[in-house]
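Q&A log
Question type: sequence-to-structure
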Amino acid sequence: MEAMDEMLLANWVNLHHSSINVPSSYLQPPETRPGTLFISSGNTIPVIDLGGHHHQHHADIINQILKASEEYGFFQVINHGVSRDLMDDVLNIFKEFHSMPSKEKLNECSKDPNRSCKLYTSGENHRRDAVHYWKDTLTHPCPPSGEYMKYWPNKPSNYRKVVGKYTEEVRKLGLKILEMLCEGLGIRKEYFLSGGLSENPSLVVHHYPPCPDPTLTLGLAKHRDPSIITILLQDKNVRGLQVLKDHEWFGVDPIPYAFVVNIGLLLQIISNGRLIGAEHRVVTNLRNARTSVAYFMNPSKESIIEPANDLLVNGTTQQTIYKSLSYEEFRKNFFHKGPKFESELHN
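Response status: OK
Response body:
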């Protein structure tokens, strides 16, 4: 059986890119192949400026966030308070990490006895998956307590310092957005600070090397995120992310120094279906590698995921359309059953 360092996509694509075809295990079945990659449907996710402070502007921002979360499940934010230098630094660190020799990368991700800090290719079950995805992925928890930092990579040399600062800043932004969503929905502002609902964030860094034929394969399959919200930093000039709306795929063009925010399936449940965890996928690129940094706001295992009681008490909702379950149970079923599980969540 191939060793993981030989399977990492960056390892062999970088060596042979100009002469390889897409290997058969990476060919998507015809019905999920992206075909034409970027069609201009005129659809584009809303861009929201978080820069205003006075009261009137605040109410306007809340309305924009709420509307985008109901209609698209996606929006981009600018003037969000995270420094541009930090955004550049963190993206560069991850690019540097992914360009290190495979054995070194794997060694840097093998310190955690629970395997929560890991590097894998395609998906977490590479050896079992019938169809592979054109990406390598680095992931690790980044809770505010900092307890996992000792398992994070130590190379590149300032990895922990830069990534630690970045996750701190993005957490603040995430909590600010969630607070505004709470105001818009009529839920108490501190809702996501209680019940462990934002205590277990994780970082997922995807690296998509150039692909010899992007029409035949995918970087990521169509999915909804199993998070509360996801805050994504995209490469500034390489497209890849696509969102499904009204049965049509459209691209999310990178805006320099903006974050893409999307509603996760957990928030769809908490909002009792009012906000949508939109389906999205990633296509690959013929000439350029693309790196994306996703910060998932996740609850602790014991957290109970259910429609917010405030929605029922305030009379904005008559009945709950989703069952109540622990986050641990949700995750287990989400990864085990896939999209089938979504229909089981309904009352």
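Response note: Residues 197 and 299 are 4 Å apart (CA to CA).
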